[in-house]
Write a structure and sequence with these properties.
heterodimer; A: 243 residues; mainly alpha; MetI-like fold; B: 247 residues; alpha/beta; Rossmann fold; six-stranded mixed sheet; three-stranded antiparallel sheet; 7 helices
């Protein structure tokens, strides 16, 4: 049964109906923003630039958190190092990140660096712990098979650790980016950076309908990204480690 | 003749929690000759898989000594796992190629030729591009065997290799294994809990006691090959072994 479901999913991503759905999902947020700009009498360029700059900050932070999280997980998933480091990481991830926002603001000011720094702290831990979980749950006899095959160094990481870490990386990305979107707007408002969704929402905070439609537009975008990028990736990642 | 490997006073204690030691192997002394088909037989928990792992180098913490004949290194050993241990993101071909990937003396082309030959020998050539989840249990274990023999090892370890497949497939796989062993003159060390399997395959059978595992007796199998495991001699040997194996 599981096998049949997996096969059906593969077909879905090749069908004409699905391609049409993909195009619609892709267009939906942009159509919505254009329509929204007309009824709210806001320049389309303002909407797109605010959204673009916020996405730039989020994607920048995500890439940094991904590289850092994956490297840390690979470095500390087993052995004596993990026994020492994991409790430390656990404490760090439990730390309320907003508490260091004033300190970060004092250090970086109202800049992109400050927003990105804060977002990295938000996205890093879900990514790290999800990858860690994937690595820790690997079958012991896979490790033994690889040891017998003599894989070492770069080949070991590329051919063995990387594929095992992919499902965790994708799950962590979904959770991390979910938290990242929430933190993004809040951080932009608190830090007071110019441009971006935070600036947009604080400029129109007096107008309930613009705020409402703005949030609706943002949700449409997040939903589209989720359906277009993350859901297929999540399916794929589970398929490659399925026995 | 010099033994290929000699185990001297090998013991193994697992310590999961402080103060809770679990002795699984006690003072094992054993010699295995080059080209021999040697079987470790015993009930569950007798430490036979642990002993196999110690010999293969997968288990590094133990007391005693494992001495290999000069010139035998880890690269000369292969392992066939009970639950196949195929990497699900690799194709059949790539799984069979695993042991050759780090070999600097082989070109990609040479690797391909070796793997294709092994897959052909085990009837897997049509499945080279398939993934493990698309194969039956028997086919997966064929891939496990192809992976093990592709490196042309001097010794091959098998940990209950046929316990996850049905009896008909197990019979076929045992035939395949015997052909490979006879053709290539490699040493085979295998773990099983099935007396009939041991009688069909082994030159010598080491019977282990329940935990902590000790060598109860090593029996030479006098039956001529090809073996008829329904012969009177086979039944007599089965009775002799059965009397020695304690549950």
């Amino acid at each position: 049964m599981r096998h049949m479901i997996a096969r059906k999913r593969v077909v879905i991503y090749q069908s004409r109906r699905h391609l049409l759905a993909v195009v619609l999902f892709l267009l939906a947020p942009f159509l919505f923003l254009t329509f929204f700009s007309q009824i709210a009498h806001i320049a389309v360029s303002r909407l797109y630039s605010d959204l673009g700059i916020s996405m730039f900050r989020l994607i920048g932070a995500y890439v940094i958190a991904l590289i850092l999280g994956w490297t840390l997980a690979i470095g500390f998933y087993k052995g004596k190092r993990s026994m020492v480091a994991l409790p430390v990481f656990d404490v760090l991830q439990s730390f309320p990140t907003f508490a260091i926002l004033p300190l970060a603001s004092a250090a970086f000011g109202a800049t992109n660096t400050n927003v990105i720094f804060f977002l990295v702290l938000t996205i890093l831990w879900p990514v790290f712990f999800s990858i860690l979980s994937s690595l820790k749950l690997m079958r012991h006899d896979w490790e033994e098979a690889v040891e017998m095959a003599g894989w070492r160094g770069f080949e070991y990481v590329k051919r063995f650790l990387w594929p095992i870490s992919v499902p965790g990386l994708i799950t962590g990305s979904i959770i991390g980016l979910g938290e990242g979107w929430g933190a993004l707007v809040a951080t932009e408002i608190i830090v007071g950076v110019r441009m971006g969704l935070g600036d947009f929402f604080s400029s129109y905070s007096h107008n309930a309908s613009i705020t409402f439609f703005g949030i609706l537009g943002l949700l449409t975008l997040i939903f589209s990204i989720n359906k277009l990028v993350w859901t297929p990736l999540l399916d794929w990642s589970h398929r490659i480690t399925e026995e | 003749m010099q033994p290929l490997v000699a185990l001297q006073h090998v013991s193994k204690i697992f310590t999961d929690k402080p103060g809770e030691d679990l002795s699984v192997l006690e003072r094992i002394n054993l010699e295995i000759m080059p080209g021999e088909f040697f079987i470790l037989l015993g009930p569950s928990g007798s430490g036979k898989s642990t002993l196999l792992r110690i010999m293969s180098g997968l288990e590094k913490s133990y007391q005693g000594a494992v001495r290999w004949e000069t010139g035998v290194s880890h690269a000369d050993m292969s392992f066939v796992f009970q639950q196949f241990a195929l990497l699900p993101w690799l194709t059949v071909f790539e799984n069979a190629e695993m042991g050759l990937v780090m070999r600097k003396d082989l070109t990609v082309e040479q690797r391909k030729i070796i793997v294709a030959k092994e897959l052909r020998e085990l009837g897997l050539e049509r499945f080279a591009r398939s993934y493990p989840h698309e194969l039956s249990g028997g086919m997966r274990q064929r891939v496990g065997i192809a992976r093990a023999i592709a490196t042309n090892p001097k010794v091959i370890f098998l940990d209950e290799p046929f316990s996850e497949v049905d009896s008909f497939t197990a019979k076929e796989l045992r035939k395949n294994l015997l052909v490979i062993w006879q053709d290539r003159k490699m040493t085979v060390v295998m773990v099983t809990h099935l007396i009939e399997e041991a009688i069909e395959l082994a030159d010598r059978i080491a019977i282990l006691t329940p935990r902590p595992g000790k060598i109860e007796k090593i029996i030479a199998n006098p039956l001529p090959r090809p073996r008829n495991i329904r012969s009177q001699e086979a039944y007599r040997l089965e009775d002799e072994i059965y009397a020695l194996v304690k549950p």
